[in-house]
Amino acid sequence: MKLKVLYILVFAFGASNLMNAQLNNYKYIIVPKSFSALKSENQYQTSTVMKYLLTQKGFTVVYNDALPEDLANNRCLGLNADLLDESSLFSTKLAVVFTDCQSKEIFRTVEGRSKIKEYVPAYRDAMEKALVSFDGMDYHYVPKKEAKKEVREEPITVSFKNDIQSVDEVEEPEVSESSKLVQQEATPENQSYKSLEPKPSNMVKAQEQQNAQLLPSEVLYAQPIENGYQLVDSTPKVVLKLEETSIPDVFLVNYQGSNGVVFKKEGKWFLEHSENGAKKLQELQIKF
Prior knowledge:
Layout: H1 2-23, E1 28-31, H2 46-56, E2 61-63, H3 69-73, E3 78-85, E4 92-99, E5 105-108, E6 112-114, H4 119-130, E7 182-186, E8 191-195, H5 206-212, E9 219-225, E10 228-232, E11 238-244, E12 250-255, E13 258-265, E14 268-275, E15 278-287
Parallel strand pairs: 1-2, 1-3, 9-15
Antiparallel strand pairs: 3-4, 4-5, 4-6, 7-8, 9-10, 10-11, 11-12, 12-13, 13-14, 14-15
Helix pairs in contact: 2-4
Region (Disordered): 167-196
Organism: Flagellimonas alvinocaridis
Signal peptide: 1-21
């Protein structure tokens, strides 16, 4: 009996590691504004809550109508999230299914159940219970390695038909290492010299420029916009946009190309986001 239990635990651990490795191959999770099992956009706040919960699990989550450039050019960088709704009259029962760009199912969570009567908190409760399937997974994006093309070696045919017949027919010039990097033409009538050495670039990567732009420490003023607020400085310039969630004083943001959360704790506002795989926390001065 003990041996059987040990076998089940080892199998489950191995399956978990395998699934974790599969998820690491995907950079994004795409959440639709309207799930196939529901009738209207963001019904019962399912899309908003799903995006928030998956972001909390460490994933980079985007809506299907707001794809970043690399994902728009290659949909296979992301997994599509969908709800499998098996709710009954007395309980809400949900599972989350993840499929790749070819509609192949990659992962399915456990079924989350809730007996809350109100729809919005019931769907949130069921989704939270379903997404416990990600607990304990150490997700970090690892790009897929492209398969190397097989190189077939062709037989070599040697021919001496047009070779020289004596050493007097040609004189081999001495070639120095430095001459391999220049283009020269030197005759009594025409002389020229053109360097082919690579020149250093003065271009700065966009990501480096973006990382240099930190949020100001001054007071930021919140201006209402659709689905949230925009934070402006005294210039005024928009420095951050806050997207409302179903949780009071918790907003979703996109900061430096990655998803983050702005929240209020003990009377202070904070921005939490990922930077090079590490969690960063920055205090903000926000005036609503």
